[in-house]
Amino acid sequence: MSRQMLAEKGISLIEWQQRIKKGKVSSEEIVKYYLEQIKKKNKQINAFLAINQKAIKEAQRADEKIRKSKSVDLFRKKPLLGLPIAVKDNFCTKSLPTTAASRILENYIPPYDATVVQCLKKAGAIILGKTNMDAWAHGSSTETSSFGPTHNPYDLHRVPGGSSGGSTAAVAAGMTPAAIGSETAGSIRQPAAWCGVVGFKPTYGRVSRYGLIAMASSLDCPGPITQTIKDTALLYNILAGPDSKDATTIKEKSHPVSIKNPLPKNLKVGLCREYLKLAKKEIVQKIIQAAKILEKGGAKIQEVSLLDPKVSIAVYTILQRAEVSSNLARYDGIRYGRNRSFFGLEAKRRIMLGTFVLSAGYFDQYYIKAQKARTKIIRDFEEIFKKVDLIISPTSPTVALEIGEWEKNPMFGETQDVLVEPSSLAGLPGININCGYNKEGLPIGLQIFGPQKSEELILKLAYRFEQWQK
Questions:
Q1: Residue 2 domain-assigned?
Q2: Which of 101, 183, 330, 367 fits a disulfide with 135 by CB distance 3.0 to 4.6 angstroms?
Q3: Is the backbone peptide bond immediately before 163 cis, with ω within 30 degrees of 0?
Q4: Helix H or strand E encompassing 126
């Protein structure tokens, strides 16, 4: 296999939306274009596991609706009308297989749509297909998929990150204008960094988990993966809000974010020294450059100190494994799917460790202590956000790694997600945005995160950075 670069700067959702509005292109033409891109590139990248065979018919119906409508409010009510979007394969889809990239659920078609999918369809979107991922979202490279690894469009010998690697690779390769991912601790932001795209994790509970195959229920969070911050804000406004089917959603109504509103005067942005220490030198240099761009734009950059992010590795490992062992217990092959012998190596590891930390005699020693440490992490962030409004740092300590590195380290995912795990444990919103490339041309990600419910401020700063670095 050559180190062919299949990364491609495609047309954004909003650009397609404007073209459809002006009658310059039809939904059918857009969908056919992306289906052709998938046909051309998916054998090498392996980003898609299933394609919506009804996508063209759905596009034709959208075009008919646009032709017949005389209302100027059509695109206000349905802002995604006729636009294709890919969905990670752990979101239930009524008409498409949902496998969580595991042989256990191979060919399983759910009887309902996840709330996130319902929101997309209500806004007029066409589900283009389902994207590859680490099986059950267990991993940070998309190599644990039962259906083969996804390859990074910037270098086919490298991984895209994970667990939403299929979604980020599909966006980076121009196989879809945008995609939906899920993050437990880095699974949106980390692969977005390695694939050079925008990946946004909202506050825990801001977007419904109903219909998302659970990994760690106190951490899982759906979010958009896009090419631009404008597209991210568009999708976030469509997805966010309370859901009676998910008791963990934030009960208050989510107000639409507006990224064009001015930033607050004297915006204080923290640059965390502990996070910089864990990143490669070439990444630190790009983050420092990004900080200077933000400072030139008016933000006040100040160095801050947080708990060593390595602490979060132990805390996350214990809590996540405990919840995994509980959530995977339902897959017994009795009502649907195959039996447990089809679990992969990573799933078996996590089930065993999770069962151990929840067992009698060890529950207090491990699980309860981890919960206390999680509270300590939350309190640490609460104190730092009294001093600064937002924090920036590297998203990942490295650029995309070679395929096969995961097999060398049983804690591969935790060590690669070390810079995003603390904020995930605290339920904080955060975003990855590309801030440059290393000497090999591999993307480097800048992470911006803030206190709970600070989505608009994060998106506004990310949008300004996107404009300032042009």
A1: no
A2: 101
A3: yes
A4: strand 126-131
What DSSP state is assigned to residue 201? E
Q: Output the pLDDT for position 2.
A: 46
pTM of the prediction?
Answer: 0.97
* Residue 162, in any domain of the structure: yes
Distance CA 265, CA 19 (A): 36
Count up the domains in the chain and report the number. 1
Q: Exactly one of 41, 78, 88, 121 is catalytic; name it.
A: 88
- Angle CA(120)–CA(126)–CA(129) in degrees, nearest 5? 100
Give pLDDT tens digits for 144-182: 999 999 999 999 999 999 999 999 999 999 999 999 999
In this prediction, residue 411 carries a pLDDT of: 84
Q: Residue 368 carries which DSSP code? A: I
Q: What is the CATH number of the domain that holds 317?
A: 3.90.1300.10
3-state secondary structure of 224: strand
Residue 322's nearest CA partner among 434, 209, 216 is: 216
Q: Which of 12, 102, 187, 208 is catalytic?
A: 187
Q: From CA 297, how far away is CA 461, in angstroms rounded?
A: 10
Residue 7 in any domain: the answer is no
| Active-site residue, selected from the candidate residues 12, 26, 145, 163 | 163
> Is the confidence at residue 71, as pLDDT, over 80?
no
Expressed as residue numbers, the domain containing 31 is 13-468
187 is catalytic: yes
H-helix or E-strand containing 239?
A: helix 229-239
* Stretch (H or E) spanning 282: helix 281-296
> What residues contact residue 188 under an 8 Å CB cut-off, 6+ apart?
164, 168, 181, 182, 199, 200, 201, 221, 223, 225, 432
List, as one string, the DSSP characters of 141-170.
SS-S-TT----BTTBTTB---SSSHHHHHH
Instruction: Please report whether residue 133 resides in a domain.
Output: yes
Q: What are phi and psi of 380, to 5 degrees?
A: -60, -45
Rounded CA-CA distance 156/5 in Å is: 7
Query: Is 88 designated active site?
Result: yes
